[in-house]
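User: I'm preparing a small set of examples for a lab meeting where we compare how different chains pack in three dimensions. I only have the primary sequence for this one, and I'd like the structure in token form so I can line it up with the others. Please keep the answer compact; I'll paste it straight into my notes.
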Amino acid sequence: MSKAETKEAYTVYKQNVNRYFEEAEKNVTQYIQAISNLQQEFASAYRNAVETALEFQQETATKSGFNANLPPTYLKAINDATEEIVKTSSVQNKAVLAAMEAARQNIKTFNDNLKAFTNMDASILQSWFSAWTPSRN
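Assistant: Understood. Below is the structure token output for the 137-residue chain.
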């Protein structure tokens, strides 16, 4: 039987749904890689922009004779603030990863429950049909 021939509706539907999800699953990997590449490129560009601005400011200050030395209390405040920012970022990253893992587990649980409910519904339906179907002797 060729694909062009008419088949039972649920079989045709299932084949087309499977085709759709097979194609979608192939694309997911490509999307993830493209997003990762874009994020890395953005991070590199942002870092380069900040470093270039700092170098320009440093060169300008040096050429103008500006004393850019900071008092120890300012250095401590800047280093302490940076340390807190790094710690906060680390905690945020852990929270995001934990939330993503929880979401993945919830989807897996939903999928497992869906299978169980479908099997239960099929059993209930079969029991109803068997109650109203005349027995053959």
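A couple of notes for your slides: The two ends are 37 Å apart (CA to CA). The first helix runs from residue 9 to 64.

User: Perfect, thanks.
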